[in-house]
Amino acid sequence: MKKYIFIFIAALALTITACGKKGAGPKETGKAPELQAGEVQESGTQADQSEDYEAELEEDPAFQEPFVSTLTDEGKIVTRNDRGKIGFMSGDFYGKPVTDEAGALEAIYSVMTDVGGSEDTELRHDLTATMGGVTYYTFVPTQDGKDFYEGEVKVAADRSGTVLGIVSSLKEGPFDEDTLSEPVDYQIKNEKTAFFNKLIPDTLTQTVEYGENGKTEITVPVSKDPKTGETFLADVDRGIICVDKDDYENDGKMTVLEPGADKYSDYELAYYDACIKVFDYYEAKGWKIPNGRGSLLMLCIDRGTAGEPVPANMAAYTGYVEGFEHMQLSARLPNEIDVSLLGHEYTHMVSHSNHVGEYLNETGAIDEGLSDIMGFAIEMSVLNKDGSEWLDDYETERKEAGYPNFVWDEYYTPHAAFYAPDNDGGNVHHNSNCISMIFLRLDEAGMTADEQFDFWIQADLALTWDTDFKQFGERLPWCMEIAGYPQYEQVLREAIAETRLLDTGVVEEPQPGLALVRFDYPDVDLSDNNELYFSFDDLNSSCRTTWPEAKTGKVAASLSPGYYYVYLRVADRYADEGEPPAYYLYYPERGWERVSGYVIENYEFEELTDPIAVEEGEKLTLVTKGLPET
């Protein structure tokens, strides 16, 4: 299995495709792949992943025994996995100062068998990152010169070298060949990276229609060829280059943006300017831009093609390719390009650089939540916005959830029975809302956006390959402590309890202000070959989608009081391309009956059945008669 480089689609591109109304949107490849909003791409095909689905479930940590935490006599938090190995331990376990990679390696080997490795485990230094006075030394296991990225281990130390803790997802070898990948050369030099060698820095001032401020004069760095006088939208000093997305992806040509009709378009400069603001903010905080290793950054901007459909509204971090970190940016976003959008995608790059996590289920939701939080925190800090801006943005289509309607399980689908583009990688965008809620509670308690960034970057750096919600929630108080904000620890713990990070089971009772709809799917094995999801649609503002929980088949939906039509979509994973899915409509008291896709897509089910009525505090069990079985 190659090192994971995922495609991260900005929340702005999301729609609720499952409900027929609105949409949801990384691995090293030869060229950055083209994705439509709503897709989540990984190496290999979806069919490749599904063929070994049952085996994957058995290996998936989400379905093993949960991590168990204990508090030692010395006050250290120790979290152990189902194998009895330490996944997280706070405090100084080493007793000697750690001030460089060699010292960190010695500290790891002093507890190697305790944190999941063996006496034969060989480690390669992958990254050293210092943020807020805390340095993380990251190592990955190697075998035959290749890396096993699922087995990261990190040691954190303060400015004096005192060890603050260790996080680990190490496993004992030997590792299967398909789980190994060649180390990535982040300093590669080639014809494309040599572009900057012949240029000199310059600046450009232009008046643009930029966001809510209307016409704004901005000055951005550009690069000039001293021989020809040509100007390019690139920054020699920061190592940022803006290229035509279509030329690069379709033909492999690096067409650096030049002004059209003697000027750049407003959206090109707005994107570029916002990216520089994020870039500089991270650098000022201590991050070695752009990816912790000093590589170059390429912005692939979609300028559109005459006569072609308008590009989808989206932005995406698309991974590291040929010496550059890459972002894709649509040319047709409305005139509300903001720093938080670029901060969101940039944070995906930062997260991917410091840990190669699975963009699936809880791990992917943590990634999404952190990108939301960091993007907003950066915008609020850079543009001096107050906390109320969070609510303003949260009510836009950037998230499928709308505050203050949030309640944990209204968006969280624990351990989705399958992961695929159709269910948003196991519901990563919905499930991320619980992380955002913690941000909101800290904001309400008076924690500034800049302070929040300091805290959440520690949480980001403390992630490993398979960090789930429970592990994440247990590490957050430690992250707050080492970030230097003990005054917010109690608020943080209350927010963790409110969002149920430490208790991610399917809810059994209605949550405050909501109703609970529950039933057990009669044939959970049906999900082995099919993608199933249920939609609860009020035909107005709310359409909730959920899936049977893997292995148990439990279905749960927390809904605001109201009337909902319920339908099931079943898509054969192995069907020929173009074969339509099957739909089943729920008839109260009578059960489920198959209907055509036309009925669902055109909302004609209103004429066929009544909706279910749910009241606040009600626990409703649906009839399962008529549901498809294997």
Q: How would you explain this protein's 3D organization?
A:
This protein is α+β, with helices and mostly antiparallel strands and 630 residues long. The model is unreliable at 1-7, 9-66 and 391-412 (pLDDT under 50). A hairpin with a 3-residue loop joins β23 and β24 (591-595). Among the domains are: 67-179, no CATH class; 193-350, Roll (Elastase, domain 1), CATH 3.10.170; 515-621. It contains 15 helices and 26 strands.
What descriptors fit this protein?
globular; 630 residues; Elastase, domain 1; disordered N terminus; six-stranded mixed β-sheet; eight-stranded antiparallel β-sheet; alpha+beta; single chain; 26% helix
Count the strands? 26
Structural class: alpha+beta
- Count of individual helical segments: 15
Shape: globular
Span between termini: 31 Å
Q: Indicate the radius of gyration in whole angstroms.
A: 25 Å
A few lines on this structure:
The protein is α+β, with helices and mostly antiparallel strands. Helices cover 26% and strands 23% of the residues. Among the domains are: 67-179, no CATH class; 193-350, Roll (Elastase, domain 1), CATH 3.10.170; 515-621.
Explain the layout of strands and helices.
Layout: E1 8-9, H1 46-51, H2 53-59, E2 68-71, E3 77-80, E4 86-90, H3 101-109, E5 122-131, E6 134-143, E7 146-147, E8 153-157, E9 163-168, E10 200-209, E11 215-224, E12 231-232, E13 234-235, E14 240-244, H4 245-251, H5 266-284, E15 296-301, E16 315-321, E17 324-329, H6 339-354, H7 361-382, H8 388-394, H9 408-411, H10 424-431, H11 433-444, H12 449-461, H13 469-483, H14 489-499, E18 515-520, E19 530-537, E20 543-546, E21 554-559, E22 562-572, E23 582-587, E24 591-595, H15 597-601, E25 612-614, E26 619-621
Parallel strand pairs: 14-15, 15-17, 18-26
Antiparallel strand pairs: 1-16, 2-3, 3-4, 4-9, 5-6, 6-7, 6-8, 8-9, 10-11, 11-12, 13-14, 16-17, 18-21, 19-20, 19-22, 22-23, 22-25, 23-24
Helix pairs in contact: 5-6, 6-7, 7-10, 7-11, 7-12, 11-14, 12-13, 13-14
